[in-house]
Amino acid sequence: MEGITSSTVGYTGGKHGEPNYDTVCRGDGHTEAIKVEFDPAVISYERIMRKVLAQASGPPRKAQYMSAVWFMDDEQAKVAKQVAKELGKDREGVPILPAATWHDAEEYHQKYYEKQKKTLPRVCGLRR
Protein backbone atom coordinates (compact mmCIF):
# COMPACT_ATOMS: atom_id res chain seq x y z
CA MET A 1 0.00 0.00 0.00
CA GLU A 2 1.19 3.47 -0.78
CA GLY A 3 2.32 5.17 2.43
CA ILE A 4 3.61 2.02 4.12
CA THR A 5 7.27 2.79 4.70
CA SER A 6 8.36 -0.56 6.14
CA SER A 7 7.11 -3.85 7.48
CA THR A 8 8.71 -6.48 9.66
CA VAL A 9 7.50 -9.99 10.42
CA GLY A 10 7.75 -11.05 14.02
CA TYR A 11 6.16 -12.49 17.13
CA THR A 12 4.17 -10.75 19.86
CA GLY A 13 1.81 -11.42 22.71
CA GLY A 14 3.39 -14.52 24.25
CA LYS A 15 5.29 -15.30 27.41
CA HIS A 16 8.49 -16.92 26.07
CA GLY A 17 11.35 -14.43 26.48
CA GLU A 18 13.08 -15.25 23.20
CA PRO A 19 10.53 -16.71 20.79
CA ASN A 20 11.49 -18.24 17.49
CA TYR A 21 9.52 -20.10 14.87
CA ASP A 22 9.91 -23.41 16.69
CA THR A 23 8.72 -22.11 20.08
CA VAL A 24 5.79 -20.32 18.44
CA CYS A 25 4.79 -23.50 16.58
CA ARG A 26 4.94 -25.42 19.86
CA GLY A 27 2.40 -22.98 21.34
CA ASP A 28 4.39 -20.52 23.46
CA GLY A 29 1.49 -18.05 23.19
CA HIS A 30 3.03 -15.69 20.65
CA THR A 31 1.24 -14.68 17.47
CA GLU A 32 2.94 -14.40 14.10
CA ALA A 33 2.44 -10.73 13.25
CA ILE A 34 3.48 -7.90 10.96
CA LYS A 35 4.75 -4.60 12.33
CA VAL A 36 3.89 -1.82 9.91
CA GLU A 37 5.38 1.66 9.80
CA PHE A 38 3.61 4.27 7.72
CA ASP A 39 3.68 7.90 6.67
CA PRO A 40 0.51 9.56 8.05
CA ALA A 41 0.88 12.32 5.45
CA VAL A 42 0.24 9.66 2.77
CA ILE A 43 -2.06 7.12 4.43
CA SER A 44 -4.18 7.27 7.54
CA TYR A 45 -4.18 4.74 10.34
CA GLU A 46 -7.91 4.35 9.72
CA ARG A 47 -7.34 3.32 6.11
CA ILE A 48 -4.75 0.77 7.19
CA MET A 49 -7.17 -0.60 9.79
CA ARG A 50 -9.91 -0.90 7.17
CA LYS A 51 -7.60 -3.00 4.98
CA VAL A 52 -6.25 -5.12 7.84
CA LEU A 53 -9.56 -5.73 9.59
CA ALA A 54 -11.43 -6.46 6.36
CA GLN A 55 -9.15 -9.49 6.01
CA ALA A 56 -9.15 -10.50 9.70
CA SER A 57 -10.98 -13.59 10.91
CA GLY A 58 -12.29 -14.83 14.21
CA PRO A 59 -10.17 -16.65 16.77
CA PRO A 60 -8.24 -19.74 15.61
CA ARG A 61 -7.38 -22.70 17.79
CA LYS A 62 -3.77 -21.52 18.21
CA ALA A 63 -2.55 -18.05 19.24
CA GLN A 64 0.10 -18.43 16.52
CA TYR A 65 -2.47 -17.71 13.80
CA MET A 66 -4.68 -15.18 15.58
CA SER A 67 -5.95 -12.14 13.69
CA ALA A 68 -5.50 -9.14 16.00
CA VAL A 69 -4.51 -5.50 16.14
CA TRP A 70 -1.93 -4.28 18.64
CA PHE A 71 -2.29 -0.51 19.07
CA MET A 72 0.41 1.93 20.16
CA ASP A 73 -1.72 4.62 21.84
CA ASP A 74 -5.26 5.60 22.84
CA GLU A 75 -6.03 7.22 19.48
CA GLN A 76 -5.05 4.07 17.57
CA ALA A 77 -7.16 2.00 19.98
CA LYS A 78 -10.15 4.23 19.37
CA VAL A 79 -9.80 4.07 15.57
CA ALA A 80 -9.17 0.30 15.48
CA LYS A 81 -12.16 -0.43 17.73
CA GLN A 82 -14.44 1.83 15.68
CA VAL A 83 -13.40 0.21 12.38
CA ALA A 84 -13.73 -3.28 13.89
CA LYS A 85 -17.24 -2.41 15.03
CA GLU A 86 -18.23 -0.99 11.62
CA LEU A 87 -16.94 -4.15 9.88
CA GLY A 88 -18.51 -6.52 12.42
CA LYS A 89 -15.11 -7.83 13.47
CA ASP A 90 -15.84 -7.08 17.11
CA ARG A 91 -18.62 -9.70 16.93
CA GLU A 92 -16.22 -12.17 15.27
CA GLY A 93 -13.86 -11.90 18.23
CA VAL A 94 -10.93 -10.13 16.56
CA PRO A 95 -9.05 -8.64 19.53
CA ILE A 96 -7.80 -5.06 19.68
CA LEU A 97 -4.96 -5.11 22.22
CA PRO A 98 -2.29 -2.80 23.62
CA ALA A 99 1.09 -3.34 21.98
CA ALA A 100 3.10 -6.12 23.58
CA THR A 101 6.80 -6.87 23.45
CA TRP A 102 7.89 -7.32 19.84
CA HIS A 103 10.42 -9.89 18.59
CA ASP A 104 11.61 -9.85 14.98
CA ALA A 105 11.20 -13.20 13.24
CA GLU A 106 14.13 -14.99 11.68
CA GLU A 107 15.59 -13.49 8.51
CA TYR A 108 14.18 -16.26 6.29
CA HIS A 109 10.65 -15.10 7.27
CA GLN A 110 11.26 -11.47 6.30
CA LYS A 111 9.82 -10.40 2.92
CA TYR A 112 8.65 -14.00 2.43
CA TYR A 113 6.23 -13.28 -0.43
CA GLU A 114 8.77 -11.18 -2.29
CA LYS A 115 11.24 -14.06 -2.03
CA GLN A 116 8.59 -16.48 -3.31
CA LYS A 117 7.76 -14.27 -6.30
CA LYS A 118 11.37 -14.59 -7.41
CA THR A 119 10.96 -18.37 -7.64
CA LEU A 120 7.33 -18.44 -8.82
CA PRO A 121 7.95 -18.44 -12.61
CA ARG A 122 10.37 -21.35 -12.31
CA VAL A 123 7.91 -23.27 -10.11
CA CYS A 124 5.02 -22.50 -12.47
CA GLY A 125 7.16 -23.59 -15.40
CA LEU A 126 7.74 -26.94 -13.75
CA ARG A 127 4.02 -27.48 -13.29
CA ARG A 128 3.16 -27.07 -16.95
TrEMBL record:
<dbReference type="GO" id="GO:0008113">
    <property type="term" value="F:peptide-methionine (S)-S-oxide reductase activity"/>
</dbReference>
<dbReference type="Pfam" id="PF01625">
    <property type="entry name" value="PMSR"/>
</dbReference>
<protein>
    <recommendedName>
        <fullName>peptide-methionine (S)-S-oxide reductase</fullName>
        <ecNumber>1.8.4.11</ecNumber>
    </recommendedName>
</protein>
<comment type="similarity">
    <text>Belongs to the MsrA Met sulfoxide reductase family.</text>
</comment>
<feature type="domain" description="Peptide methionine sulphoxide reductase MsrA">
    <location>
        <begin position="2"/>
        <end position="119"/>
    </location>
</feature>
<dbReference type="InterPro" id="IPR002569">
    <property type="entry name" value="Met_Sox_Rdtase_MsrA_dom"/>
</dbReference>
<keyword id="KW-0560">Oxidoreductase</keyword>
<dbReference type="InterPro" id="IPR036509">
    <property type="entry name" value="Met_Sox_Rdtase_MsrA_sf"/>
</dbReference>
